[in-house]
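Quality-control log, excerpt.
Job 1 of 2 completed; input and output follow.
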Amino acid sequence: MNAMISLPRGLRGIVLCALFAGVSTAVCAKSSNAVDNDWKLAEKIVAGIQAPVIPAREFSVTDFAADANDVRPAIIAAIDAAVSAGGGRVVIPPGEWVSHGPVVLQSRIELHLREGAVLRFSADPEDYLPVVKSRWEGTELFTYSPLIYASHVEDVAITGTGIIDGNADSRFKSWHPQQNADMQRLRRMGADSVPVEQRIFGEGTFLRPPLVQFFHARRVLLQDFTALNSPFWVNHIVYTDHATVRGIRVDSHFPNNDGIDIESSSNVLVENSWFRTGDDSVVVKSGRDLDGRNIGVPSQRIVVRNNDMGGEDGIALGSEMSGGIRDVFFTDNILRKGISAFRFKSNLDRGGLVENVRLRNLTVESFDSLFWFQLNYPGELGGFFPSTYQDIVFENIQVQEVGTFLEVHAPDAAPLKDVVFRDIHVEKVATPLVIENAVNLKFEEVKLGSQRIDGVLSWRK
């Protein structure tokens, strides 16, 4: 028997229990229509997220000899003055301001960009040295500073309707084709448990930094600003507890420009935001391979609602998810156009468990794939730590057009399991199903064009 089943174009009006008779294990039984009580957990998560507490006093950079050609010294002085006073709001007024180097936030500081303010970062990578401790694609290291960076902080915010611009002419952009050797060296260091202090990727290396990164933070707010031209991931929240992302706009199309990466973080709300990105719009992660498993900090208690998403992929979990992901809720989002609307991914070095993921009330326009589970990417380091994705529910999703409705590739040792597709309507689809190692996939009221799918599918080697 083949390891993968691929259905022809069109379902010919038959349900799964008949379609797979004789070649797979199929059960003609509908799932319970009981209300999923997990959505009460989502409400509880949102109600319990703590906002930053920052004193209501302002420090304008113009009071610190601000120079539009290099505003960074004035920002640093304003932050230092606010810290000395016990915290406050550092204000960037209208106008175009260039920062020759990173803006480093401290506890009880709000960076506020007024309407009409543009904070543009310099194009020279040398401005972002010395190295700082960070996490790059799920592995810890010391490397070029994120353009806005906050490490081991509490009560921090970036607000206002101004613009944070990573610079369309940034030399970091040209590093993407040059990064592979450093990327592989870092991954091997993580797999070999090289001490983090020895993982130095500074001058002469080519790992791009994110635009914004919170690294070990508590009570964070990102609100209303627009992000452009990020060198790498756009907004990276890592090892953070209690974070709210509200009303931001991301329009950034460099390689790897995820709109927001939620990594090894808890109690996170992303709402009412707009994403047009060169990679995933919203992605949840938790570390890579042995390094991620040793640190062992999951991403959990996350709610993503009322967002407009347009990127290469819309919603993603992984591929760096070795610390685990659980209790994640997506509701009332719009997904526009791209490669995959919902993409779940890992390789055979990862390990990790992803469970209790709920997605509902979603509108999808046009994607090459609607649901894509790629869980068997070959391991690069010779390990065999298959990841487990289970207990996922998709419901009430309206779709205009997709190439493939559902594609699953999982290792035989860790099949995709216990996934529910309920009340999903697709107006036009070319290929219904491509399945490789899945157990207990339940379809309830799934309509592909004029055809309907109901039943339970399992397919193993």
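Job 2 of 2 completed; input and output follow.
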Amino acid sequence: MNITATQARQDAGLSQTRRPADEAIAADARALSEQLKAMRERLFAPTAMKTLRSFTSGEAAKLIGVSDGYLRQLSLAGEGPQPDTGLGGRRSYSLSDINALRRHLAEQALAKGNAAKARSYLKWRDPEAGEHLQVISVTNFKGGSGKTTSSVHIAQYLAMTGHRVLAVDLDPQASLSALFGYQPELDLTGNDTLYGAIRYDAEARPLKDIIRKTYFDGLDLVPGNLELQEFEHTTPQALGARHNGTDAGPLFFARVQAALADVADDYDVVIIDCPPQLGYLTLSALCASTSVVVTVHPQMLDVASMNQFLYMTSDLLSVVREAGGELNFDFLRYLVTRFEPNDGPQAQIVGFMRSLFGDRVLTSAMVKSTAVSDAGLTKQTLYEVGRENFTRATYDRAVESLNAVNGEIEALIHAAWGR
């Protein structure tokens, strides 16, 4: 339901008087929804949909793994997609252009019998070589740990480096979907989240019908909204029905895995942004995962909270394992987020974690940066905004941190594939 600004002010005024709490909260929700819609239309005019910026020839060359001079030679020779040319002959490439160039260079390398070189350009997994779909759950049940920010940057980095990626928003709050330009209460009509593929009744539909393309070439999305919470309510009912002899299909912990199996051939990596709670959704995601990244903010209360999270996860997963669930992770890593290197107590906590967990703590950390938070004001990530929008030193420091973390995760993925 859309409302005008006048109606929103009237609702706000009425909320000062005695009225049912549900009506007051609904009025606030409608007012906020309308303002978010107006903001999206203003930021992403004229279509009110996000688009990805183009990349300079230098950025494109770095992403592909060639020199800028070689990229210029390809352009002059008319090989591969031709870049847009701006003032002063500056060349720019879309991400789809970059991926097309990767395919072109990989074909050239294969024609010369250099399979290793081809793979350096085109990083798609090879099922025939035993390279399985990598499903990575990014999780923690402490809010503010940087879980969604980490998820979206990992997914975008992997897409930019030539992988086929599926991002799954499993959080009913749908922050990941918002970063991809979706406003759940406006853009999703029902049965179009992962819940649509894992529900227990006849309304279930194939995951391939739910997946949406994004403005990132090679990166698709399963959006989220509040209907995901239904899985937490219907699962106990399904377990009760099974106990009474009624078959409701796969047990809850196998349903996400079964849904992903139907689209596995189309992707190399799946990134799941888990909800900040340890419910049936999170457990089902963990059971579908080949790897797990646990985000943690280096504060003592956050570390103590993570300790309880690990205990609870262990207890619940042991029950799942006894019920027949398979739990074999290629890697489990702790990712330090919002890290301030000059903060003494934070540095001590990171050192404490490294002494306990060793190499299970990623070597790199996501540093706290105003560049990331400033990009978030317009529902963008650091990979989407140009360097010209920030102080160069601030931008470069933040991107260097992101690339170090995500490059480390990429290396773990490739190691799991035996590369």
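Post-run check on job 2. The mean pLDDT is 86.
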